[in-house]
């Protein structure tokens, strides 16, 4: 039996505006922490470019972390009885879209599939570190 409907997004997407502001500030701080000047002579023309690329890398990492948290929240919602229609509505997609995004998330006792046995259910976090990349 489905539970209460998920909360709807606030009018005007105030939540989105607030998240954009917070993530922008966080990305700026993280980019400053990881933006090390290259060894050798300073390249004044390259500094803004390097900083922009570091910020872009930080934002890609933030996006990956948010996707992981979204996956975790979807698994938790399913484990607490939410179905694909509710999960899809919570993230602004159709039931079919939610099913494609999280296949096997909803338990089907007749098929022996549970949220813990679908592919990717127990992905480790954080993901393994890739080889460091070099700056421009």
Structure overview:
With 136 residues, the chain is an all-alpha fold. It contains four helices and no strands. It has helices at 14-34, 46-79, 84-90, 95-101.
Report a brief summary of the structure:
By secondary structure, this protein is an all-alpha fold. Helix content is 51%, strand content 0%. It is elongated, with a radius of gyration of 20 Å.
Structural topology:
Elements lengths: L13 H21 L11 H34 L4 H7 L4 H7 L35
Helix pairs in contact: 1-2, 3-4
The tally of helices reads 4
Compressed to H and E, one letter per element, the order equals HHHH
Proportion of beta-strand residues: under 5%
**Can you tell me the overall shape?**
elongated
Helicity level: 40-55%
Judged by helices, strands and strand pairing, the structural class is mainly alpha
How far the N terminus sits from the C terminus, by CA atoms, comes to 55 Å
- Could you tell me the number of beta strands? 0
- Uncertain stretches: 111-122
Q: What is the gyration radius calculated from CA atoms? A: 20 Å
Question: Quick check: average pLDDT?
Answer: 78
Strand count, sense and barrel status of the largest sheet are:
none
Keywords:
mainly alpha; 136 residues; elongated
